[in-house]
Each structure stands twice: as C-alpha cells, then as structure tokens.
Amino acid sequence: MSEKTYLEALNLAIDEEMQRDPGVMIFGEDVGGVKGGVFGVTKGLAEKFGDERVFNTPLGESEIAGLATGLGLMGHHAIAEFQFADYILPAINQILSEATKMRYRTAGDWTAPIVMRAPYGGGVRGGFYHSQSTEKIFAGQPGLRVVTPSTVYDAKGMLKTAIRSEDPVLFYEHKKLYRSIKADISDADYTVPIDKANILQSGDDVTVIAYGMMLQYVLKATEELKDDISIEVVDLRSLYPLDKATIIEATKKTGKVLLVTEDPKEGSIMNNVSAVIAENALFDLDAPVQILAGPDSPSMPYAKDLEDAFLVNPEQVKAAIKDLAEF
Amino acid sequence: MKLKESRLSNEELIDAYKMVKEARMLDERLWQLNRIGKSTFNISGQGAEVGQVAMALAFEPKKDYFLPYYRDMAAVMVWGMNSKDILMGSLGKEDDPSSHGRQMPNHYGDKRYNIVSFSSTVTTQLPLATGVGLAMQVDKKDSIVLTATGEGSTAQGDFHEALNFAGVKKLPVVFVVENNGYAISTPNNEEFGVKKLSDRAPGYGIFGKHIDGHDFAETYLAFKEAVQHARNGEGASLIEMVVDRLTAHSSDDDQRVYRSEKEIAEMKKHDCVDIMEKQLVDEKILKESELEDIKNELANKINQATEDAEAMPNPTSDQLMTHIYEGGE
Predict the structure, then answer these.
(1) Which of A43, A171, A67, A193 is nearest to A119 (CA)?
(2) Which parts of chain B have pLDDT scores under 50?
(3) pLDDT score for B62
(4) A98 to chain B: which residues are within 8 Å by CB?
(5) Which CATH number is A17's domain given?
(6) In which domain, by residue range, is A40 found?
(7) Which one of A318, B14, B91, B211 is most buried, by most CB atoms within 10 A?
(8) Domain residues of chain B, as ranges?
(9) How much of chain A exceeds pLDDT 70, in percent?
(10) What φ, ψ does residue A115 adopt, rounded to 5°?
C-alpha cells in the first residue's frame, strides 16, 4: 500500500500498462517531453518510455482522436488526452462517426481499442471553458463507453481496465479531484470494472447516486448523517452504458433515490438514470426521484460568487438527503 | 504520355486495362441493379478508373494499407476485392466484406487486404490514415499508407489537421485528392481559392504533385515517386489527381440540373477508358479484336458474379445487436 492522489493513481495506471504492453502509446497537447500535461498526469512518462510512445501533438483535437483510432485499428491500445473536456468538441465527428461505430459497421472486422482521457468538472475557477461536464454529449452512443472514476482506488483500477479494453473508452477525470483526494491504494496490479456501478456504502433509508466531485460531497454528508440516516451510496462509474441492474437494485432497496450531478439538470446523465428508475422501479418508490443538479445556465461563470452559486455544494447535498429521508 | 513510358510490361499494362474495364462494367451493372430496384444506392468512380488503377499499382496492395473513399472501386479491386465482393455490398449481403450489409453500398473496406472501412463522413479517413501511418513507423514496418478523398473534402478541418500532423511526423502516408470538378453540385471555383490543390503541399512541408488522372503513365510514375518518398522515410505526399465524374454524384442526383449539356458532352469525349483503349491499340499492345474479347470475357465474369452475389444470404434480424461491444459477437 502507498498513499497516492487521484492524479498519481492515474499516472501509475498508465505507467504500469505501458510496461505491460509495449503497444500502449499516449499523446495529446503538451503530454510529452518534460512537461507531462498541463495537469501533470503524464509527467515522467516520456523520460521513461521515450518520445516515440509519449509525445506532444499539434493543437488539433480531431486529429488527436483520429490518430488514436488509426493506431487502434493497427492493434495499439492508444491513449489520447484532450487537455480539457471542454475542448473535445472539435473531435466529436471523429469520436462518434469513426471510433464509436468502427466495430459495428464492420461486424467486428476492424476495432478501435482506445482510451480518450478528458479532464472535466468545475470548482477550479476555470470559467466557461475549463469547467464543463461534457460527458452527456456522448451518452446514448452505442459502441462507445463513457466512464469516470470518483475515488483514488478506481482512478488506477478503472484506467487500467480502460486501456486493456477492446472498446473505445471516453475516460472522464474530475480535475478538482486530481490533487484534492488521497488514499492508500494497493501497489499490486489490480483492475476495476468499467461497466459496473459500485455500492460504496450500504444503507436502508435513502439511496444516493453520484459521480465525480459530487460523490465526494455525498460521502461527506453520509459521514455527517450516519447516526440518523442509513444511506446507500452508489458510484455510477459507467456513465454510458448505464449499469441498470445495480441502479434498479439500489432503488428497490430503499425506495427513495437522490441523484446528484454538477451538470445542468435537463439533459444530464442523471436524467437517464432517472428514466431507468421510472421505467423499472416506479412501484418500489416511496418518494419522487430527486435530482440535485447545476442550474440550466450555459456554463460555469468565473467570478467566485457566481461559480459558487452554480455548483451544488455539500450543504445542499446534506439537506437533500435529510428531506428525502423525512418524506 | 505513352502507356509504355510507365516502364510497365505489355502484360502488366493489359492486366491494368482489364481492371479499368472491369471496374467500368461493374459500375454499369450497379446502376442497373439500382434502376431495377435491387439496390437502393450507387455512387460511382466512372471517369476516374484509369487514374485509380495507375495509382494503386504504384503500391504493394495487400501489404500496404488503403483508406479509400466511395468512388474508389477500381482502386480497391487492384487492392484485392473482386466483383462479387462489391456486388454483395450493393445488395446488402451478410458476406459483404466491407460492412456485412451494415453500411450503404460503395463504402469499401476489407480486412483481408488491409483496406480500412470507410464512413460517409468524408475526410475523417485522413486522420485515421495518420494513425495507421504512425503505427507503421513505430512498429518499424515496411508498409505504407494510401488514403483517398474527393476535392470537396479539402475544405474540411480534418484535411488540414491530418496533413499538418503527417508533415510534423514525416509519416509514410500518400494523400490523394481525386479532383473531379464538383462536390455534388458545387464547382471547384466555389470550393477553394488556390489554383492547384497540390500547391498546399509545401504549406505542410510535404511532397506535392498535380497530375492528370486520364494519363495512365503520368499517374503511375507520380505515385511511384510518392511511394518512394514514403518508403525511404522522407515523409508524406499530397497528390492532386484530376479526373472526371461521368455520372451524377450518386443515384439520387441528376447532374443535368447543374451542368450544361455541352459540358457533359465534352467530358464524355475524353472518357479515360476510351483514351486508354486507343493508347493500347496505337502502341500495338492490343488489337481492336482483342479489346472486344476482353469486353466479352468481363461481361461473362460480371454476370456470373452478379448471380453468385444474389444467391448469397442476407443478414438476419438477430444480427442487429451483435458487434456493438467487445464480446458481443
């Protein structure tokens, strides 16, 4: 065991997989050389594995995605980094028209076993274009996996699984978690499934489903309320496709569900979770499904008070759990 | 240029001609199948067959990789696909090697011959080609990569991003733009401001050449040069190959709406297949009667391929949900 941050766990996952599989390559804007990414996720990797496997790309996200897919066609488990999830937009055509559809449109003759990493989320004073949760754009695209780790343990284990996967995986990383959470994790070569939600805590009164920074708030609230409310906490992990079985089971267990996301509510991933519950567990509910989400405003503003007002905060999470328990 | 200036043997030139002619006759068959309702779509390379065959012959098909676009029937046939393969695609058959009946006709791909699947989102194949090229470089493989597109694609961002990256990494990729004058109905003068698209090559630090795709030898030699660059590690090339589009954009278009009768008639007067046939006779490589024999032989071949393809099974509805994710066969 050793203590790692979320960011260090990601770096370790890439490092271990590059040692294990010489076909793994990683690239993106400022990913190579001594810089190792604007957040430092790839720091030290170019030195260790050479400039051929760890390198900078020109500033062009569509090329980054297409390059990864082309390498994937040749059997390389390539890892592309988008500097911010906000900047993934120019690559959408490549991701959805090529990588996502390659296996299906050739009935498995050609595949794109690649990982596309994207730092997302707010709370870092990043303003409009360094704060967004763009994962919802990619939900509902069969062929593509959209996943995110929300704990240090999962950061390492899920990224290793994503790299080994034969499917294209969009790997969202919450940038606020990079250095704000630390944990003792195993030094062993472990993996974590990327297609299964995780029951982080078992409870009987209320079920709370979340991911990313919001999941940390949920865990904090759960700790503070532990003497009064028994809370089932579900880490969604796979944002698409959803692990419907776990969602339904966790709903039926308590009959009360709170969904938390920092993304604007309408069209968010949590709307899809809510639909799964409505379709499959309506008569097991003792209260309407509650969604605690960001406002339906275009993006997260820079000014501190505005950013704070946009973001769901720990007090709101706690209050929403209490309200639901009392319903 | 004379055919013989390609320095190919008479036998090689005759084989090349047979591929040109087969592609032309097969495409005519695809139009027939479309018009009698057996397929719902066709998009042709008529007017580009000579250029495409000359281009493809400069490579080592099957060993080299090819990322084609939808007009590249003649080129994918040089690479290894046969008439039956292509007919199965048009008829949406299970054994269609391009997509097993999943994509529209003419979206060529064939894993057996290193032909990478093509989507309809023109230009996305160029960044993919850079990935394939980089894999060849990193894996120290001797194979190189050819990717083709129409001139309409040169306005897309992916065109710039891919060529820029290929220039940075000196990738073994040959980019060909088959300029047939129109992006559906939009003519060249509304597509780009540069005189020759190949003039963009120096802007990316790569080799560029503008050629007439009606000229077999000129085309073959230009691609040989580009192939040599790629194999020698001297990097990528951009070849603008001027061809014609003898048919409408697709079976859902009518080019008489936006091209004058005179323009279409002029174009048909210099049909690349006719030019090559005349050269074969003039250079005493084939006699008129031999051309006729080849035509009859190919007609039988295509009739047989059509029968064979039509007899193949259609995909069944239980295949709808297969091959979505790993393990979902």
Answers:
(1) A171
(2) none
(3) 83
(4) 119, 121, 124, 128
(5) 3.40.50.970
(6) 2-185
(7) B211
(8) 3-312
(9) 100
(10) -120, 135
- Which superfamily, per CATH, for B3-312? Thiamin diphosphate (ThDP)-binding fold, Pyr/PP domains (3.40.50.970)
Task: Tell me if B111 and A109 make a contact (CB, 8 A cut-off).
Answer: yes
A24, A71, A238: best to mutate for the B interface, most B CBs within 10 A: A71
Cβ atoms of A64 and A87 within 8 Å: the answer is no
Min Cα–Cα distance to chain B from A14, Å? 19
Asked if A196 has any chain B CB less than 8 Å from its own CB, the reply is no
* Residue A151 sits in the same domain as residue A15: yes
Please report where in the chains the tokens 């979206």 appear, as a residue: B107
Neighbours of B310 (CB within 10 A): 14
DSSP code for B104: P
Show Cβ contacts of residue A301 under 8 Å, excluding neighbours closer than 6 positions.
A127, A128, A307, A310
Residue contact B131–A66, C-beta within 8 A = yes
Instruction: Give me the mean pLDDT over the A13-19 stretch.
Output: 98
Rg (CA), chain B: 19
Q: Do A66 and B162 touch (CB under 8 A)?
A: yes
Burial code (b: 16+ CB inside 10 Å, e: under 16) for A244-281 equals eebbbbbbbbbbbbbbbbbbbbeebbbbbbbebbeebb
Q: A31 lies in a domain?
A: yes
The identity of residue A19, as a single letter, is Q
Q: Which residue has the tokens 């390539």?
A: A78
Closest partner residue to B119 (CB to CB) among A72, A73, A101 is A101
Q: Hey, are the CB atoms on B127 and A166 less than 8 Å from each other?
A: no
Q: Which of A26, A64, A74 to mutate to test the interface with B (most CBs of B within 10 A)?
A: A74
We report the CATH number of the domain holding residue A291 as 3.40.50.920
Residue A64 sits in the same domain as residue A144: yes
Cβ-Cβ pairs closer than 8 A, A with B, add up to 134
Which helix (DSSP H) or strand (DSSP E) does residue A274 occupy? Answer: helix A269-281
A192 found inside a domain: no
Question: Does the pLDDT value for residue A102 go beyond 90?
Answer: yes
Tens-place pLDDT, residues B222-281: 999 999 999 999 999 999 999 999 999 999 999 999 999 999 999 999 999 999 999 999
Band of pLDDT at residue A285, cut at 50, 70 and 90: very high
